[in-house]
């Protein structure tokens, strides 16, 4: 058996590469996770992609219930590893229920290489893995705002909301891209001299954008984010923070 991990960007069928479409049509089985009623839209978007680009009548599509991570585990890494074990078991059980599936595809949000668990879970099955890259959410965010990801000749750092909240602004960089932030860590930072470019559902229907000095934009984003989550039942957002360069003194 071979596993195909196919990056699908933000779920917009137009984000798929030609390589992704060909890989999807080469699969015997496509696995689609269900994450509960509140995230049914995500499974629906994956099925919409299959409806739009699948032309191979032999390709089967099967859903499975995604196990939930135990957020109460005092060790974050232990909790994640236990969760990955559980997901690998469900993958194996679902594949076993569909005999003859020699090439099994999973549609991975964004790209399998960036803050996604699919590669680590796939390693537990011991099968060969082929990765098809997809658009990453930092690319979609900066495109939506029309800004460069990095300052001229300068580095940037991609991190998580948990690390930003627990450790503060990392040293040595002026630009941060923050993902997986369920608690709005940007609101914990001293806002002076920081600008934010924020997006929810970037690249998807209903995309929401905001940007500006952090002191001004933070309250707006908090309110907008809460309202969007209440309306749709889930939210997927990302933001870029940038320390503003000091204005150089005017020289005569």
UniProtKB/TrEMBL annotation:
EC number: 2.1.1.152
Pfam family, one: TP_methylase
A GO biological process held by the record: methylation
Keyword presence, S-adenosyl-L-methionine: yes
Keywords: Cobalamin biosynthesis, Methyltransferase, S-adenosyl-L-methionine, Transferase
Reactions performed catalytically: precorrin-5 + S-adenosyl-L-methionine + H2O = precorrin-6A + acetate + S-adenosyl-L-homocysteine + 2 H(+)
Pathway, per record: Cofactor biosynthesis; adenosylcobalamin biosynthesis
Cited CDD domains: Precorrin-6A-synthase
Keyword S-adenosyl-L-methionine: yes
Entry's Gene Ontology molecular function annotations: precorrin-6A synthase (deacetylating) activity
Domain Tetrapyrrole methylase: 3-217
Family matches, as InterPro entries: 4pyrrol_Mease, 4pyrrol_Methylase_sf, 4pyrrole_Mease_sub1, 4pyrrole_Mease_sub2, CobF
Name of this chain's protein: Precorrin-6A synthase [deacetylating]
Organism (species): Paenirhodobacter populi
């Amino acid at each position: 058996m071979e596993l195909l991990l196919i990056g699908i960007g933000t779920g917009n069928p137009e984000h798929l590469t030609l390589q992704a479409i060909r890989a999807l049509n080469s699969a015997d089985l496509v696995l689609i996770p269900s994450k509960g009623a509140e995230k049914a839209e995500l499974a629906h978007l994956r099925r919409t992609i299959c409806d739009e680009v699948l032309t191979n009548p032999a390709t089967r599509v099967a859903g499975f219930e995604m196990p939930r991570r135990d957020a109460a585990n005092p060790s974050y890494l232990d909790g994640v590893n236990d969760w990955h074990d559980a997901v690998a078991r469900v993958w194996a059980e679902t594949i076993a229920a569909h005999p003859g599936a020699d090439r099994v595809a999973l549609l991975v949000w964004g790209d399998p290489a960036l803050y996604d668990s699919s590669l680590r879970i796939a390693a537990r099955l011991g099968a060969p893995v082929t990765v098809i890259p997809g658009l990453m959410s930092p690319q979609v965010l900066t495109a939506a705002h029309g800004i460069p990801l990095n300052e001229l000749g300068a580095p940037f750092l991609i991190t998580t909301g948990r690390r930003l909240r627990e450790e503060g602004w990392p040293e040595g960089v002026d630009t941060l891209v923050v993902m997986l932030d369920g608690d709005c860590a940007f609101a914990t930072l001293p806002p002076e001299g920081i600008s934010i470019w924020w997006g929810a559902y970037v690249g998807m229907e209903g995309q929401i954008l905001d940007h500006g000095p952090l002191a001004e934009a933070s309250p707006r984003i908090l309110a907008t984010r809460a309202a969007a989550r209440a309306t749709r039942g889930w939210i997927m957002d990302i933001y870029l923070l940038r320390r503003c360069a000091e204005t150089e003194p005017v020289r005569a």
